[in-house]
Amino acid sequence: MTIFVIALLSVAVMGILQMNTEEIQLMQNQVYAAQALAIAEAGLNDAFAEIRNRRNWDSGFSNKSFDGGRYTVEVTGTLPNRTIVSRGTSSQGFIAKLEANVTVDSDYPYVIRIDSLRINE
Asked: Alpha helices, DSSP H only, in the chain?
């Protein structure tokens, strides 16, 4: 009887440990995904800063380092309307994408109006 109770308790403890391990992994994945999104947002803000200084800037960025990760920014469209796509990659390889359709004002400093923003589409 004692061996049966010990075996039953061992199975219960192993099950609880497995559930805890999975919860920890899910939490880590959530953190890494949030980091990738923050990196993509940094790329978008970097592009906004460039456009505010030079209205016709459209060269984008390629694998620019930020906070242990990297972002790539593409700028398309004709003025005053632009589409800016920023892809952020965390150091763990998680990827996030932001796409903003913007309108750029014609007077310096060039005000940028975000007409639509799509996240991870």
From this structure: 2-53
User: What is the structure's pLDDT at 108?
Assistant: 85
Helix (H) or strand (E) holding 88: strand 81-89
Contact 97, 85 (CB under 8 A): yes
Query: What is the rounded distance in angstroms from the CA atom of residue 68 to the CA atom of residue 8?
Result: 46
- 3-class SS of residue 12: helix
Q: Which domain holds residue 25?
A: 2-119
Please choose, from the candidates 115, 114, 105, the residue with its C-alpha nearest in 3D space to the C-alpha of residue 55.
105
Q: How do residues 10-24 score in pLDDT, each as one tens digit?
A: 888 888 888 888 899
CA distance 96 to 62: 15
Give yes or no for a contact between 47 and 62, defined as CB atoms under 8 angstroms apart: no
Q: What's the CA gap between 24 and 36, in Å, rounded? A: 19
Number of alpha carbons in the 13 Å side-chain half-sphere of residue 95: 7
Q: How many domains does the chain have?
A: 1
